[in-house]
Write a structure and sequence with these properties.
mainly alpha; about 90 residues
Length: about 90
């Protein structure tokens, strides 16, 4: 391999890393979590209207809130899990 080929490979790796970092930032972003919660609320709300369930607005709130709470607590559990793995 010559120097030019090595530089091309390094550049390609750096570009890939930028994309991976951006994707990871989206995956853990609050905006993504809120978007999924809102979409969940709307889909469940529509389903509850279709089946004519009582209190559809309130009942659709439950799974959306559950999703948000789970995503907010996961970083804490992840940190604890990683710490437990480091000790082994």
């Amino acid at each position: 391999m010559n120097l030019e080929e090595i530089e091309k490979e390094i550049s390609a790796i750096q570009e890939r890393n930028k994309k991976v970092e951006t994707d990871k930032a989206w995956e853990v972003s609050l905006a993504r979590k809120i978007l999924i919660a809102v979409m969940t609320y709307v889909v469940v709300l529509l389903a509850l209207f279709v089946v004519e369930a009582p209190n559809p607005y309130l009942n659709a709130f439950v799974p959306s809130t559950g999703f948000l709470l789970s995503t907010l607590s996961l970083p804490w559990f992840k940190k604890k899990w990683i710490e437990s793995r480091k000790q082994k």
